[in-house]
Structures are given as structure tokens and as C-alpha cells.
Amino acid sequence: MRRRLLVLVGATTLLVLVAFLVPLALLVRTVAADRAVQGASVEAQALSALVATADADALALTVSQVDATSPADVSVFLPGGAVLGAPAARSPLVELAARGSSASGDVEGGREIVFAVRDSAGPGAVIRTFVPSSALTAGVARAWLLLAGLGAGLLVIGLLVADRLARSLVRSTTELAAVSDRLARGDLAARAGTGGPGELAVVAGALNGLAGRIADLLREERETVADLAHRVRTPLTALRLDAEALRDPDDAARIGAGVDGVQRAVTQAIEQARRRGSGPAGRAGCDAAAAVRERVAFWGVLAEDTDRPVTVDVDPGPLPVALGRADLEAAVDALLGNVFAHTPDGTPFAVRLHRAGDGAVLVVSDGGPGLPVGAGTPRRGASGSGSTGLGLDIARRAAEQTGGRLDLRPSEAGGLEVVLRLGGDPGPEPAKSQPALA
Questions:
Q1: pTM to 2 decimals?
Q2: Within 13 A of 350's CA, how many CA atoms are on the CB side?
Q3: Segments making up each domain of the chain, as ranges
Q4: Which CATH superfamily is domain 286-422 in?
Q5: Which of 44, 85, 157, 337 could form a disulfide with 75 if both were Cys (CB 3.0 to 4.6 A apart)?
Q6: Could you read off the pLDDT of 165-208 as tens digits, one per residue?
Q7: What DSSP string runs through 298-335?
Q8: Contacts of 194 (CB under 8 A, 6+ apart)
């Protein structure tokens, strides 16, 4: 942008200078020539009275003095053929003046001016003045240099002013882009300065308003999640008490595990809301191999109950990815939950986790009916089988948090194969205890 503004201002200034200085330079040359011709004409006309009245010796002396002091060559052609002053041949203009007609014209090397001087005694004399080209252009080169210097100076000043203006515009635009990038990375405290040019100041104000609105929405979301936690605390407590009151230990353990699962899900939702509202932070990471093995083992019990053959192929760990343990487990649970929800009992499925560069690729495939033809990746909240439609969206968002993506394709068994590409972990996830339900 800065370079384009400089080119635009430079081109515009140059066109204006050319349109102004070229006619001025031609005018300077014309004025210089007219001044030289006018001076020579005045000197020649001053000799007219002497040519008609003075004697030959006085006239010769006067003409010689005028010729010596004038930048032009001054000659007087007498009726008898004698030539006084500067030697010169009888040109066609001189012959014309001898017949009584004064004239001037451009000749080789300069301009020739002739005056006819006649009296009652007979044929008259001719006064000839020759102005050389050097006299016609005296001072023109210097004037042109001054004009060129003036034009160059104006051009430089224009470019400097344009550069200052472009720098302020580019600086304001760059600051807006930097603030937008910080907001995109979760730094909701980022604000743009409003001291730039008018239009950019309006954009900066709108961006600041947007950032404030996002912060308000996230704060409302955190308050809503906290309210949800308080709302579910009493029902969960009642369920836990009911589970502990059961006589069958297996039933009590099963219901207690379900209550713990609900409690973990609510706690994870609270943690995610807090992370979104806490500004930019380093990405948490985890060992994908350990997390996937644990969740497959958890779902393996249900797979055994529904007669589903399971194939597990997980590379030896540690296999770090740039995703928190809770988020990765939620993504794996969503993918495996889809297998159990959308395929009939007895349908085999496979889970494979392999290292890919500095990240990992998780593949979950089944032998079920697969997605309808042309369905593509389901949108958030959209499902054609009566579900919430959030399972694949949870996995997709988890992959995108690491810079990866989610792909859907037919499996070798004829069902659906979900490929989750996860980016590498920038560092180990700090150990922390499970927060209590607020």
C-alpha cells in the first residue's frame, strides 16, 4: 500500500510538473530570443540618423564602436558598395532592404535583421544586424537547469509528504491487523488505537466494540455454565445417594459410574468456558496414545456386550499432540459413540492411531451402512438419524484446535471411516487435579 501511494503521488506530481515546466521552459527560450533581437534592433535603429547625416569617416568610426560593444554583428552597406563594421556578404535580405524594405529572418547560425535607410539624395544605405544563436539562447540553459532543479525539489517534497502519509496509513492498518490477529488467538484484552485517519479510526472503534461484545458474550457463557453446575449439583447428589442406597453393589457401582461421568462432563464444560475467557495461553498437550487406549478400553466393555469385534492398533507412546487430555477423550468418545449409535449390534469397528510428522492421525472405521451419498461432513447440530449432530463436530473442532482437520471417507468394510489429523504438542500438559463441581 505504501509503495502504491508513493507511485501514485510521484506519477501525479510528475505529470503536473511536466505540464507546467515544459511550457515555461519554451517561454523562457522565446523571451531570451526576443530580448536579444529587440536589443539588436534598437542599436541598429540608433544608427539610422547617423547613416543619413554623418560623413563617411565619422560613420565608419561609430559603426565600428557599436559593432565592438554589441553581441550582434553590425554592418552598414553604403550605396557605393562599401561595407562598414563587421564584414558581411550581401544576402537576399540586404538586397531587399536596398530596394527600401526592412525585414528580418532566420539564417544559418542565427537571425539577420536589416533596415533600409533612404534619403532624398538618391539610393540609401542598409543597416544589417546579425544576432548569433548563442546570443538568442543566452541564459536559457541556466534557466532550464533552475526549472529542472525546482521540479526535482517539488517532486522530492511531494514524495516525502506522500511517504509520511502512507506510513501513517500503513501503520494504522498494520496495527488493526495485529489487533485482529490477537483477538483471533483469544486475547480479548487487545484494543486498537483510534488515533489514525478518520476512516481507519472508525474501523478501529468498531473492532474495539466487537472485542467488547465478544468478551461480554463469553462472560455470559461462563455465568451460564456456572449456573448449570449449580443446577445439576442437587440432582447429582440425589442420584449418588440413591446409588449408594442400592443393595446390589454392581448396580450401585454402575449408577455411581454414570453419575461420575456426568460430573466429569459438566466439569470439562466449565474448564472449557474458563479457558475461552482467560485470554491467550499456551496450548495444552497430552499423550494421545495413552488417552486413546484408555477410551478404547472403556468402550470395549460395551463392544463385548453388543458382540462387536474391535481392532485396535495404537503406536507405542508417548505420542504428544497439541490438545488437552479432556478434549481428546471427548473427541474419541464422540467418534466411538457414533459407531454404537448408528450401526447395528455385531458391526465390527477398528481404531488406529499412528504417528504423522510431529502429530498423529486417529482413524475410526466401521462396517456399518456409512453416510448417505453426497452427505459430506455434517454441520453442527445437523443430523439425519435423529441425533444431536454434535459428535462429529466435537471431533472436528478438536482437530482444528491443533491445526489439523477431520476427513470422512468410505471404509474398506463398506462403512464409514473418520480420519482425525492432530497437530503436534508444543509442550507437555501441566499436571493438575480434577476441579470439584462448582
A1: 0.44
A2: 16
A3: 2-140, 216-277, 286-422
A4: Histidine kinase-like ATPase, C-terminal domain (3.30.565.10)
A5: 85
A6: 887 777 778 888 888 888 887 777 888 888 777 777 888 888 88
A7: HHHHHHHHTT--EEEEE--S--EESS-HHHHHHHHHHH
A8: 201, 204, 205, 208
